Structures are given as C-alpha cells and as structure tokens.
User: Fold this.
Amino acid sequence: MRQAASTLKYTIQLLCLLAAVTVVAFSGDAVAAPADTAKSNKEVSKQETTAQTSSKRKKVVRGFDGQILSEAEQQPRLIRIRAGLTQLVGQGSFSSGVGANESVISQFNVQPYLDFQGWNLFANMTLTWEYTDPDNAAGRRLTVFDPSIGARTPIRLDAINSSVWLSGGLRLPVSHMSRAQGTVTRIFLGGVGNWRSPIPGLSARLGLNGQLSLATKDWREVEEDSEFEDRALGKVPVASCAARTGDNSADACGALPNLATLSGNLGMGYALGKFSFDLDVSVLSFINAYGGAEDEFTSGNARTGVNASTFTTSRLAVTYFAKSWMAVAAGVNSFQPIQTADGKNMRFPLWNFDGSANNFSNLFASATFRY
Assistant:
C-alpha cells in the first residue's frame, strides 16, 4: 500500500509538470477574429480544410538523431541548443511481491551545437536524479554520465530521398564507472542514415556506431598478486577489490572495463500534423578488456577468451510539437540483456517480461526545448 501511494504521488507530480509545460506552450497563442465578418461559414470551412491539408503535406525533415526539425531549426544559425527533461517510472514500481522495486528518476540532458562551414560541432551532457531509494549501498541519488564532444556532417542523397550523418568524437571519463575502470577516454565513430519514403510523413533510419575505450596500463596488464589503490580502503588485493562495501558493483573498483562497443540501430517514424510516432530498436555489444581463463577449473558452460555482453535498447514514443521551440513526448523505453537470465531465450526488445524488479523497462514522459 505504501509503495502504491508513493508511486501514485510521483505519477501525479509528473502529470502536473507536463500540464504546466503545456499551458506555458499555449499561453502565447491568440485567437484571431475573421477580418471580414460577412464571410459565410462555408468559405471559412473551405479555408481551414485547405490549410490543414497543406500542413499535413508539408515536407518532414529529420535531423541527425531522427527527430523532426522545426522550421526554425532548418534555418542557418551559428549556435543552437537543445535541452530535455525526462521523467522515468520503472516497471517495478507497479509490481507487488518479489517483483516490487520502486524506481522514479528524472533525467536532464543538454546538447549545444555550433554550425560551421557544413560541420556541426556538438557537446552532450546527461545526468539523472533518483527520488526513490537507490540500489547502490552508498545511497547516491545523483548520477553523472560521461560527457561527449565531437563533430558531424551530413551527406545528402536527394536522388533516393535520403541523408547520411557521419560523426565522431570523444567521451570524457567523468562518471564513477569510468573513473573506477581507469578509463582515459573513449573514441567513437558512427553514421546515421535517414530515408524519407514516398508515403507522406513516413521515414526510416539506420545507424551503425563503434567505440574504442582507452584505459590506463594498470588496468590492462594486471599481475597475479598486484594491488589497487582504493580511495576508501587503501591498497586492496585484486581478488577482493570488487567485493568492497559502500558502493555497487557497477562502478566499484574491479569492474571490468570495456575494450570496445559496437551498436546498430533501426528506427521508423510517422509524422502527422504536429504529432510524430516513433519506434527505435538498438543492439549493443560491449567487448570486455579481459578474457576468460581456460584451465582445469573452468566450467563447461563458461565462455573463455574475449567475451562480449550484448544488450538491446528500445523506445516507443508519441511526440507532440507544441511550439517550434518545444516538444512533449510520452511512451515506453527499455534497456536489457538480449537473453533471459538463464540464457535460454531471447528477451522481447520493447518490454521486459522476465522479472520486473530489475526495472529494465520504464514508462516515460519528457519535454524538449530547442533554440
């Protein structure tokens, strides 16, 4: 009962936030009276129908990330900025018994851009704040992700109604996980292709990305009896490093760094007036820097050599472009291992049906502001 009341409270707060944003978006709109009051209702109706048809047939232009660009964003401008606030409620918040695990998180993202001679120079920063009890033992509510800086440029293929965005850059090791893994930087390269179909409003996108992680030498060449210098516990043997208290295993000393990451994305979108309906599914493979040992103690089910952990991400959303500078969206998203816990079956990518306590899937609502 306590959990249900708490979840209801956060849900009401979320709805109030979205309602306030929507009211602000429409507060500047004015209802104009007809210039000629002698016009017949038939003439007015005809004009409205023509305007609506023209609006629906308007050419839809999508940017590097597949999102629809407003008319203002399509105009040349030196500096742009996009900021978004997203509220996520984990699936465990609506479960009871062993599946109950309340999770309510706010995510803030800011992306400044600089257009320069056909290139788009960008930066990206994301952080989250958890309102419910965090899973990590330290009780840390604020999570800061690695910021990225880079550049991208479009290649237009008008003959096939397509465009390809090529991008590359660096991620800076700011997060707890990156610092614990000894990450120096991550270099990423990728491309996203957008195709506009002959059907008005319908489009598809395909993305391929790769990332190489550079870590300190100590993490790449670990001797059998070596020790790590831990901020809390001092010198800690390698064998017990990951079992330290006061933090979660995801960013604890001893977490395996990733040597590389490969990902592919497939998405579709349909624009209708001020609405956009979008579905994106991605597959990510994290290649560990260390290989699994193979000796007389190795289990028959163990994976030896260099291993990769594969995950899927998905996003199903409805977006309403209330203003040229603001859009609101709602939907579901998931980030989960590609296989079930027993490794025998594949998970459904759009929603996690294999236990809700891990909160692999979320309901979300967001507001994005664009300048």
